[in-house]
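Run log // design_07
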């Protein structure tokens, strides 16, 4: 399963699992299991996951889960009866043998399959035995409508959540992250963590063997945790994928022979039915112990043949229905289309005396289960099938009439999806249309597109002339499948009858979808016309946002603000625009719907690629290939870039060929333009073939529609500029790159702005425009900072490393941003062409660490920290051997100390490049090529800078400068005379700085801050009399005159301990302030 990167949303899901597990009074092992689940799934250290979980607000995570649950698809409701295990029939005989067998199999095996003929007692046996399992039992009885994978996944989650509430929302969240149905099912199974649960799936014969629903079930089996047990019940043998090879010997099978009555069991059963137990041997011999055959005397039928096609039917006709009152018999046949028969549902089918019939049948010996409140009957599946066969013999018209009545009942109860199927089957297309319009958007949002297609095909013919019908749903499907031409045809058809603008005015999402289709197809005037007729709304705002940046040249100041995602297919446009704009931080995992997750997929892949997370981008790219949705932008633009960055050039070429074919099939100038951009980029970056690139870009020039998109135009100018640089065409390079950078910079389209600006810096330098070159280079760095990654910048600098070399040479500070960029570029094997000093940063407060060129290095000898700290405090001045012995070894000059000093110097040398540490005439120094910085030296510099300020700026600067002290003491754990002196020096500096800040805070009437600072000073140095006076003034300023006296008394006591009386100025202040 390729799940790619999981960020804060995944951690929030874990947090929700942990928290809800605790609320369910589960053990701490459940919480640990949840954390272990995510650690193993996403290859993280367990401690890292625990840390992230702590950082995640658990209450916020729980709220996220509730939000996701609240956003159920349109028209979606769950039939709770499907989540209930069948009741044991009244009077059913105990079957301890079967209970023991099933309990033992469930204890010993991860998967138990129960496959046997109809009437073998499969469901009742498992339901009865489940009471002895000693585990939670989740149950789902599937039906034919669950062949749609999205619907099945909905019910699987609801069934499991009925016993494990913390899994609710897991599958929904996975779909929202763009994960396909089967893989979302895997996450759902894993979310059970260490819960001891048995998950029973019943009536699986109702799923067609070719249904994609089996992939969902196979995924549940594959990823179920060891503590979960799964029981599959079916009349037919299960598909091979339902028994995962990964389970190995963990599969147990229960078949007809296991379920069959023994003679003793048959004897008890017959006796409970008021029949002669003496008949048991004959019954078992005749039926092979077939449960329903024994219970209903089928074996007495002269032509009974167990397993024959007509054995049960013949018996039912003669010995069950034949002995019933005619009205009861007709009632059973009429209501056979109902899974559960109640008075209400029977009345809906036109039965007059439904209550009387149910009471009568409750006394009859029929294979059915009963529920008391409200009175409800559930016929045995095989019995019901036989009744349906009898119903079908009444003729199509009679059956259709009943199906229509049942469909109307479902619609009244709000089960519109089920109602559509019944009404379609009844041929009542007009009423089916009404329910379909209620349910179809929800079907699409859970990604069951095949169901939506079937409904549209069946019902379009009955859409009234003045009704928009499925226009919005069809547009959603067109967008999801990247078939914008289909969307254009729908919109044009509406326009031909004068209805397009009317739809746009009444349904803003339909307006937005039509505008998107028109825009991608190059029909920009039509897109603007539709938007002009549309009201403001979330969907229309997305389209206007995207169009402002891709269709019309606008400045950043006039562009509309970024709207929030809507949960629909238009989110693909929103996230596509985010990627094209280079807004790479927008691609989180908290999405409002599964459709949003799929829609943002191409943009998320691109964002991962553009931030240098290539492996994660590849994972998500490969997962997306299997989905076949929202693929246009990905195929034509994102995929080739991702594969090129991964070094898979041949695959990138294949992706380009596929993208070209796709773009041509869709007749989209936008997609074709983006394809040409990606192809030109590959020609330049992989092949260094400017002629080929120019030929591809010329295709855009020849297509005025493609060139009319500012996004395409700016990118084309960028790669045209690189081609010109490679060919030495200075004029073309300058004109193309200036236009690209101007357009991108003005409109904040920064995806390739670092690239264009670096190329422009090179072009300006070649033209002798040094200042312009520097400005372009600065634009590149600023754009990379906004992206949150240097990946795109470094790729461009790899083409022209002289750009970074020139900027490094011009920088006086070895810690400049350009030095860091140069080091990053050099680490990738690019020859920068200038010397880049080694930077050492010494962390000294709290955690002690040595950072060399951004990498944390660990010395073998702890004294290395002291040596670097000593050199840093001397601000680079060399230190003699005697000075080092005095400082680091408390003035010891024996052989042991000298040997230890040599080892310490060697240890520092091993951390740094060759020749970074020199020893000349007994003096140790760092090379001029090494820039050593320490937290303590920086603290001193910052305090000195703060002293030059006044008022609020002095206070703020002092607080920032002293922040490292809050992390812990200087070189914690080190004890030496020099370190002790250094600590005291830093403490004194901090005290002096706080005293000055307290004085400034008092002068600025910021009394609370002044008091805190003053008290901190006096805690460190109670003899600081000037600060006692500041504290007295603060007490007086707030009217605390008793506090003035108390403060003076404390001052007097502190000074007297040192034999010092308060100064006359302090006593005078007391007299002045007290009232």
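design_07 sequence
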């Amino acid at each position: 399963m390729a799940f790619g990167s999981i960020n804060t949303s995944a951690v929030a899901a874990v947090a929700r699992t942990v928290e809800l597990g605790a609320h369910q009074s589960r053990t701490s092992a459940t919480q640990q299991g949840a954390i272990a689940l995510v650690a193993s799934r996403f290859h993280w250290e367990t401690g890292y996951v625990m840390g992230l979980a702590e950082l995640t607000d658990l209450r916020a995570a729980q709220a996220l889960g509730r939000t996701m649950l609240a956003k159920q698809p349109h028209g979606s409701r769950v039939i709770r009866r499907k989540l209930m295990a069948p009741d044991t029939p009244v009077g059913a005989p105990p079957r301890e043998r079967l209970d023991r067998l099933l309990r033992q199999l469930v204890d010993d095996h991860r998967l138990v399959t129960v496959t046997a003929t109809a009437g073998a007692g499969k469901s009742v046996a498992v339901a009865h035995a489940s009471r002895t399992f000693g585990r939670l039992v989740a149950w789902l009885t599937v039906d034919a409508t669950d062949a749609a994978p999205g619907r099945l996944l909905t019910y699987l989650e609801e069934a499991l959540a009925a016993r494990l509430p913390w899994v609710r929302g897991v599958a929904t969240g996975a779909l929202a992250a763009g994960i396909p149905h089967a893989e979302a099912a895997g996450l759902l199974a894993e979310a059970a963590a260490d819960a001891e649960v048995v998950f029973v799936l019943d009536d699986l014969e109702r799923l067609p063997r070719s249904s994609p629903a089996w992939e969902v079930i196979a995924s549940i089996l594959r990823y179920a945790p060891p503590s979960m047990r799964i029981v599959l019940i079916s009349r037919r043998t299960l598909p091979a994928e339902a028994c995962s090879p990964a389970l190995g010997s963990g599969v147990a099978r229960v078949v007809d022979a296991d379920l069959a009555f023994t003679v003793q069991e048959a004897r008890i059963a017959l006796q409970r039915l008021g029949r002669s137990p003496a008949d048991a041997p004959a019954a078992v011999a005749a039926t092979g112990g077939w449960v329903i055959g024994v219970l209903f005397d089928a074996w007495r039928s002269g032509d009974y043949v167990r397993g024959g096609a007509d054995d049960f039917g013949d018996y039912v006709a003669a010995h069950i229905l034949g002995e019933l009152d005619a009205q009861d018999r007709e009632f059973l046949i009429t209501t056979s289309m109902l899974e559960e028969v109640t008075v209400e549902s029977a009345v809906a089918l036109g039965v007059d005396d439904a209550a009387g019939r149910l009471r009568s049948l409750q006394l009859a010996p029929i294979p059915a289960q009963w529920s008391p409140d409200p009175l409800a009957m559930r016929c045995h599946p095989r019995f019901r099938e036989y009744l349906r066969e009898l119903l079908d013999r009444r003729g199509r018209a009679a059956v259709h009439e009943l199906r229509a009545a049942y469909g109307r009942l479902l619609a009244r109860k709000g089960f519109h999806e089920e109602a559509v199927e019944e009404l379609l089957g009844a041929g009542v297309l007009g009423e089916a249309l009404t329910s379909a319009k209620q349910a179809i958007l929800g079907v699409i949002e859970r990604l069951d597109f095949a169901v939506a297609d079937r409904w549209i095909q069946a019902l379009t013919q009955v859409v009234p002339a003045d009704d928009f019908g499925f226009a919005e749903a069809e547009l959603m499907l067109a967008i999801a499948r990247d078939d914008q031409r289909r969307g254009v045809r729908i919109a044009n058809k509406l326009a031909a009858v004068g209805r397009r603008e009317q739809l746009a005015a009444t349904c803003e999402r339909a307006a937005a979808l039509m505008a998107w289709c028109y825009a991608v197809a190059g029909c920009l005037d039509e897109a603007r016309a539709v938007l002009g007729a549309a009201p403001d709304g979330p969907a229309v705002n997305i389209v206007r946002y995207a169009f402002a940046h891709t269709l019309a040249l606008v400045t950043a100041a006039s562009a509309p603000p970024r709207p929030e995602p809507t949960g629909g297919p238009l989110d693909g446009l929103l996230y596509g625009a985010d990627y094209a704009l280079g807004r790479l931080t927008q691609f989180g995992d908290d999405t409002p719907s599964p459709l949003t997750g799929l829609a943002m997929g191409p943009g998320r892949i691109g964002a991962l690629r553009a931030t240098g997370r290539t492996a994660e981008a590849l994972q998500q790219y490969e997962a997306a290939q299997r989905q076949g949705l929202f693929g246009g932008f990905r195929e034509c633009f994102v995929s080739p870039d991702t594969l090129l960055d991964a070094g898979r050039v041949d695959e990138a070429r294949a992706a380009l060929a596929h993208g070209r074919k796709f773009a041509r099939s869709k007749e989209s100038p936008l997609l074709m333009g983006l394809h040409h951009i990606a192809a030109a980029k590959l020609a330049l970056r992989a092949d260094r073939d400017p002629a080929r690139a120019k030929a591809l870009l010329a295709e855009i020039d020849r297509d005025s529609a493609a060139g009319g998109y500012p996004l395409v135009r700016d990118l084309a100018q960028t790669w045209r500029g690189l081609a010109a640089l490679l060919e030495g065409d200075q004029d073309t390079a300058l004109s193309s790159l200036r236009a690209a950078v101007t357009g991108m910079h003005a409109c904040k389209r920064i995806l390739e702005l670092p690239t264009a600006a670096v190329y422009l810096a090179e072009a300006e330098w070649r033209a002798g425009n040094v200042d312009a070159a520097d400005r372009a280079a600065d634009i590149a760095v600023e754009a990379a900072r906004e992206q949150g990654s240097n990946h795109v910048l470094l790729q461009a600098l790899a083409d022209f490393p002289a750009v970074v070399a020139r900027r490094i040479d011009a920088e006086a500070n070895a810690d400049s941003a350009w030095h860091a960029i140069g080091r990053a570029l050099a680490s990738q094997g690019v020859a920068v062409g200038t010397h880049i000093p080694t930077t050492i940063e010494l962390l000294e407060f709290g955690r002690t660490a040595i950072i060399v060129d951004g990498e944390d290095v660990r010395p073998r000898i702890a004294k290395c920290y002291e040596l670097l700290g000593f050199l840093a405090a001397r601000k680079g001045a060399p230190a003699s051997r005697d000075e080092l012995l005095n400082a680091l070894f408390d003035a010891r000059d024996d052989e042991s100390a000298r040997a230890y000093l040599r080892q310490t110097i060697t240890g520092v040398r091993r951390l740094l490049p060759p020749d970074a540490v020199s020893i000349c005439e007994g003096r140790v120094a760092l090379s001029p090529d090494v820039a050593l910085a320490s937290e303590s030296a920086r603290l001193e510099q910052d305090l000195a800078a703060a002293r030059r300020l006044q008022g609020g700026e002095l206070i703020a600067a002092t607080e920032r400068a002293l922040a490292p002290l809050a992390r812990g003491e200087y070189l914690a754990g080190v004890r030496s005379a020099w370190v002790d002196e250094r600590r005291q020096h830093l403490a004194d500096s901090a005290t002096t700085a706080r005293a000055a800040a307290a004085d400034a805070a008092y002068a600025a009437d910021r009394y609370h801050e002044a008091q805190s600072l003053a008290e901190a000073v006096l805690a460190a140095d109670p003899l600081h009399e000037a600060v006692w006076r500041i504290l007295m003034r603060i007490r007086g300023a707030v009217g605390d005159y008793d506090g003035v006296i108390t403060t003076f008394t404390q001052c007097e006591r502190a000074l007297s301990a040192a034999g010092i009386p308060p100064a006359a100025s302090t006593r005078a202040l007391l007299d002045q302030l007290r009232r």
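DSSP finds 55 helices and 15 strands in the chain.
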